[in-house]
Amino acid sequence: LLALLLEKESQQHADIIQLDFLDSYQNLTIKTVMMMQWLAAHCPNASYAMKVDSDIFVNVFHLVQRLRSSPRAGFITGSLIRDGRPRREPSSKWFLSEALYHEDSFPPYVSGAGYVFSTDLAARISRASRFVRVIPLEDVYVGLCLRVLGVRPAYSLSLPLFRNLFEVRKLEYDRCTFARLIIVNGFKPSELLAVWRDFSTGRADC
User: Fold this and answer.
1) Cβ 76 vs Cβ 146: under 8 Å
2) What GO biological process terms are annotated to this protein in UniProt (predicted)?
3) Mean pLDDT, the chain, as a whole number?
């Protein structure tokens, strides 16, 4: 049944890319690298790309506005994490053994919940991945590739409050609060539909 639904979605909207690997949490890094390879091959003339999880609200209006003044090359932004450390407890969802990653801290990286990057980075990250050992934390892995490339992720803050525009916590929906953010985390599909209907028609009132 799922295969039939996917086929119908693909025929109707042409918005599904299917690649040959098991889609699981442990394989998110493989999924991300393959995404970068696909972008580099099929979208060389695009200025930016965005990776978001399926439970994320995206304020495309504010996103486009911010990107108009953003660099067109060597640029990646999201919820920036600068003090990340590997979890060594085997019971943790984010467990990372010393055998896979021996360092005590991670380089700066952006949360995998949602981030935006100039599409030149797709090919560059894809090439860098040949020299970076795969770990199951895809957002950290992108950060490791960025370190190889000498690219530092950028903060995305709103002034004058210095609020992170990529909100990885779940917030109760408020139209005018969401109008000042780029992403908000933690929505069910039905909630996203309801929020978008209200937001897309009423945001101008904020």
Assistant:
1) yes
2) lipid metabolic process; protein O-linked glycosylation
3) 95
